[in-house]
Design a protein that fits this description.
145 residues; alpha+beta; 5 helices
Length: 145
């Protein structure tokens, strides 16, 4: 089944995506914090796309264009998720295909993302969609000064 991927341009559309983000980003405590983060990230060209079926947003993708010394112009996929009961139905692959086409259209050299080691199902989906595991992401937490 071909899915239509839509752009969440207005706050009302972004709010409709909250149920998926609530499952994906457990660190965001409320819809209001989610919307506040979206507004801040819009200044960094962050965008959200989504798939709606039967009036329900079932999958989302959040991304931005980045210029990097290491990778050149890339589309960076910050967020990709589907409601738990709809995972495995092709929604994530449809969003990935849409964003891969968007990256080509915008002259990007690649699509990049980070994913947690524990997300084995997601890794298999990314590999099925042409991604390769080619780096490690490291983090240093600043903590109190």
């Amino acid at each position: 089944m071909p899915y239509q991927v839509r752009q969440a341009r207005e706050e009302q559309d972004v709010r409709r995506c909250w149920p998926v983000f609530r499952e994906l980003r457990l660190n965001i405590p409320s819809e209001e914090e989610y919307v506040a983060r979206w507004k801040r990230q819009c200044d960094e060209a962050y965008q959200i796309v989504y798939i709606e079926v039967d009036g329900e947003v079932r999958a989302v993708g959040g991304y931005r264009l980045v210029h990097s010394m290491a990778w050149g112009r890339i589309l960076y996929l910050d967020d990709l998720g589907a409601l738990a009961e709809h995972q495995g139905s092709g929604l994530g692959s449809a969003i990935l295909a849409h964003l891969q086409a968007e990256a080509r259209r915008l002259g990007c050299e690649a699509v990049h993302l980070d994913t947690g080691y524990h997300r084995q199902k997601a890794h298999r989906a990314y590999l099925r969609n042409g991604f390769v595991l080619d780096s490690h992401h490291l983090q240093w937490k600043a903590g109190p000064a």
